[in-house]
Amino acid sequence: EVQLVESGGGLVQAGGSLRLSCAASGFTFDDFAIAWFRQAPGKEREWLSCIISDGTAYYADSVKGRFTISSDNAKNTVYLQMNSLKPEDTAVYYCAADRSMCKGLYDYWGQGTQVTVSS
To answer: Within 13 Å and on the Cβ side, how many CA atoms surround 51?
Structure first.
């Protein structure tokens, strides 16, 4: 069974940090890139970052310099380190497996983890 399971969300004060995890199972991890998205209430889903198995990473301008994506291939897990969090970062955060190596063809999605940043 294919699974992407996000964890690490929670409530944090503005300026704080969180590290999200996306644990993958049921497919060949190295054959996919992993992307992070978020969706705030009433807003469209926003692409944040993507990492390929060789470590090549891409970021949206909105999070560049504050968020860092990384991968532990031995654990089939991708992380999103989020620093200097702002109230506008409040959203449900999702990871997705991209078979096109960060070109936007997503085969699998996680259920999401809530991040709430208080002011």
So the answer is: 20
Tell me the C-alpha to C-alpha distance, in Å, between residue 63 and each of 7, 24, 72, 76, 84.
19, 23, 21, 24, 10
d(CA 2, CA 61) in angstroms, rounded, equals 31
The single-letter code of the amino acid at 59 is Y
Burial of 56 (0-12, 13-18, 19+ CB in 10 A): exposed
Q: How far apart are CA 39 and CA 47, in angstroms?
A: 9
Tokens of 67: 């968020």
CA–CA separation, 11 and 115 (whole Å): 6
The tens digit of pLDDT for each residue in 57-66 reads 999 999 999 9
